[in-house]
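Input chain follows. Return structure tokens only.
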Amino acid sequence: MVTRRPYAGFRPHTPVRPVFRCRECGGAWPCQPVRLVLLAMYRDDRRRLAAFLAARLLAAIEDQPYSEPMELAERFLGWLPKTSKISDAKGGNSQMTADQRNYRE
């Protein structure tokens, strides 16, 4: 059965602070599984996804004062797909879904 929510029943890959490693797979967070989930959750509002990740980036920079901030920025934001000017002009959906509100660290 195919679901409209590809992340339903998915065990959340949440970060362990202060190292920001994935609690589920041990990879550097955001790991590949959570990237796919986040892209699905925020498919209609990439700006909100960028804001969500930027907030986690700031927490990582604060938690890891000896890490290179630009390397952390690449890790947290560098994987985001580029938006087109057409989709950028439309703006994003300002309402958060229940799944977005419930996704926690």
